[in-house]
């Protein structure tokens, strides 16, 4: 069965037929929660359709399965790294002087290590992202350890793509779209952390922005969590609200108004622009509390791009994973990544960045999309900062994914184009320095972008929600 049959089906549509068909699909999408609040014309009572592809995009079965198999290994690896202070000290040392955001996080980490922790358990809802390289291999883009979003929207989009295929009378393609339980599994991860807190009246708190645009995705997680366990209560608070309402109790419990917080789930706080001096103090207070953090400060730090680069050094993986086959499975996912500090490896990376910049992408330490630098902008940027400040970045080999044709659907645009797709695999881990209570692969997401686009964040407006079509 050929994936191209789907595109061939609509190639026969004239412009009016295509627009009518897409209009119906957009209505279906909005009625099933594939929406966001408009950033250009905000109204909390209205939604616009989230950008998506009309069809699922092809993903090789072998690569899809490899990514799934690797996730629990990567969960365990990140957990072990996060609970090894010597590793974090070593891995982040060269960026702390030059990256203020990472330094602020690290200062919190340093402060909480001075006393016996009120809470030893961490909760991680991770997502590891990949491109399928032009040589057929699966290559890792990044490991996200905070605010790994879109499971709610992706859950609905899989059903939207099934609706499209049925409307075209091509039901024989339906079994190429894999079942995706990311939403319910990630919510179950929060519930497991809540259970470990062992105070039934305590709440799960979503930390959110002052104005939420990606509201459907966040609310899907809230509502599904309560659907899975009706004993769970959830509150939503912004940093500004918490500055007024949050305090520590006598036993280091986090109190927000009249509520004791069992689990703090961060959907905000992953970018420097999210913080002020006051919110950094708030973050420290919450980190000191008895609440289980998702993520804890050490989980947040282990998601830094510098950690991804250090893992490429010989012998690092072997220190944390004893099985040689598992080490090779993970190492095969990596592309070449260079530091840009003043070490010998960093000098080599800096030279490559200045002379072979089209082979690489320059990345800072933070999450959130829109921060990467490409092509001849790499040497331009490095010349604009001091040689020492280059240590705040890593230089990552540019992955060359294979494009496919699809139809792009946005609020005010429908068009055909060549897209490339990024596969994300979610993972759940809950544990402390001595024991892992939960370690699971937790579904997938796909987001696509035009070949000409350098970024792919859906919430940032660059990417499109997508589903894998397994070939």
TrEMBL record:
Its EC number is 6.3.2.3. InterPro entries: Glutathione_synthase (IPR005615), Glutathione_synthase_a-hlx (IPR014042), Glutathione_synthase_C_euk (IPR014709), Glutathione_synthase_N_euk (IPR014049), GSH-S_sub-bd_sf (IPR037013), GSH_synth_subst-bd (IPR004887), PreATP-grasp_dom_sf (IPR016185). Binds 1 Mg(2+) ion per subunit. Mg(2+) binds at residues 142, 144, 367. It catalyses: gamma-L-glutamyl-L-cysteine + glycine + ATP = glutathione + ADP + phosphate + H(+). Pathway: Sulfur metabolism; glutathione biosynthesis; glutathione from L-cysteine and L-glutamate: step 2/2. One of its GO terms (cellular component) is cytosol. Gene3D superfamilies: 3.30.1490.50, 3.30.1490.80, ATP-grasp fold, B domain, Glutathione synthase, substrate-binding domain superfamily, eukaryotic, Glutathione Synthetase, Chain A, domain 3. One of its GO terms (molecular function) is ATP binding. SUPFAM superfamilies: Glutathione synthetase ATP-binding domain-like, PreATP-grasp domain. Keywords: ATP-binding, Glutathione biosynthesis, Ligase, Magnesium, Metal-binding, Nucleotide-binding. PANTHER family: GLUTATHIONE SYNTHETASE. Belongs to the eukaryotic GSH synthase family. Homodimer. This is Glutathione synthetase.
């Amino acid at each position: 069965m050929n994936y191209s049959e789907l595109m061939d089906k609509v190639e026969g549509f004239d412009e009016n037929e295509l627009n009518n068909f897409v209009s119906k699909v957009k209505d279906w999408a909005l009625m099933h929660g594939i929406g966001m609040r408009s950033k250009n014309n905000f109204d909390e009572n209205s939604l616009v359709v989230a950008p998506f592809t009309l069809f699922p995009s092809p993903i090789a079965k072998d690569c899809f399965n490899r990514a799934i198999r690797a996730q629990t290994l990567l969960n365990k690896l990140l957990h072990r790294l996060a609970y090894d202070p010597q590793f974090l000290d070593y891995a982040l040392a060269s960026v702390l002087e030059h990256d203020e955001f990472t330094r602020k996080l690290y200062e919190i980490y340093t402060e909480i290590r001075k006393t016996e922790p009120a809470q030893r358990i961490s909760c991680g809802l991770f997502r590891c992202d990949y491109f399928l390289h032009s040589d057929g291999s699966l290559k890792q883009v990044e490991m996200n350890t905070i605010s790994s979003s879109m499971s709610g929207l992706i859950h609905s989009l899989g059903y939207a793509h099934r609706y499209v295929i049925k409307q075209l009378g091509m039901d024989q393609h339906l079994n190429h779209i894999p079942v995706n339980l990311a939403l319910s599994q990630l919510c179950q991860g929060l519930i497991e952390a809540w259970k470990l807190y062992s105070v039934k009246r305590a709440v799960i708190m979503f930390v959110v922005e002052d104005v939420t645009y990606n509201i459907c995705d966040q609310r899907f997680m809230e509502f599904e969590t309560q659907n899975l366990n009706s004993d769970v209560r959830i509150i939503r608070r912004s940093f500004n609200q918490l500055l007024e309402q949050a305090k520590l109790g006598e036993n280091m419990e986090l109190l927000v108004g009249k509520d004791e917080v069992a689990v703090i789930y961060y959907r905000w706080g992953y970018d420097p622009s999210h913080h002020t001096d006051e919110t950094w103090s708030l973050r420290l207070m919450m980190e000191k509390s008895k609440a289980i953090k998702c993520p804890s400060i050490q989980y947040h730090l282990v998601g830094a791009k510098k950690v991804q680069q250090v893992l490429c050094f010989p012998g690092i993986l072997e220190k944390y994973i004893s099985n040689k086959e598992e080490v090779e499975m993970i190492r095969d996912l990596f592309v070449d990544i260079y530091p840009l500090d003043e070490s010998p490896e960093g000098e080599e990376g800096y030279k490559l960045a200045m002379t072979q910049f089209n082979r690489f992408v320059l990345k800072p330490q933070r999450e959130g999309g829109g921060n990467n630098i490409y092509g001849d902008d790499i040497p331009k940027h490095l010349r604009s900062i001091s040689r020492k400040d280059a240590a705040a970045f890593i230089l990552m080999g540019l992955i060359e994914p294979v494009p496919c044709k699809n139809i792009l659907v946005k609020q005010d645009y429908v068009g055909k184009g060549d897209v490339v797709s990024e596969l994300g695999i979610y993972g759940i881990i809950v544990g402390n320095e001595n024991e892992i209570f939960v370690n699971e692969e937790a579904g997938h997401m796909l987001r696509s972008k035009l070949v000409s686009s350098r970024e792919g964040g859906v919430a940032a407006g660059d990417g499109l929600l997508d589903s894998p079509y397994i070939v």
